[in-house]
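Record type: monomer structure entry
Structure origin: computed from sequence
Chain ID: A
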Amino acid sequence: MKVLLQLSSLALLLMIFGCNSEEEEITVLDVNVQNITGTWELTESYVSPGGETEWRPVKNGNIYTFFDNGKFSSSGRQNCSEGEFTLEDNILQLDCEEEHLSWRVDTLGSRVMILGGIGCIEACLYKYKRID
């Protein structure tokens, strides 16, 4: 199952980045705490309100910093500026005092992470770039 998920992620990467020569080459990494540790900024979103869509730039996107001790900090989320995170079976969960957030890690590369919304009926993907 894990191999199938990694192959699906690789196929998604090829579809997203395969035709754009300006994008850097992406090395797909295992989804684990060691590889997600660092600072990530939301730079693009791919959200469909029902129909075709495309990647759109995000200005002043949220910035998340994940620490190897299971803690995180965030800028841009009023109710969730720090807390603890877990990462299991490609599901990233953030726990704060006032909020609980969950995302599916669709792709994790050395410089790019794509998170998918859990329970989305239409496409809802969020691209983060490593900034540290």
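Annotation 1: The CA atoms of residues 14 and 115 lie 16 Å apart.
Annotation 2: The chain is about 15% helix and 40% strand.
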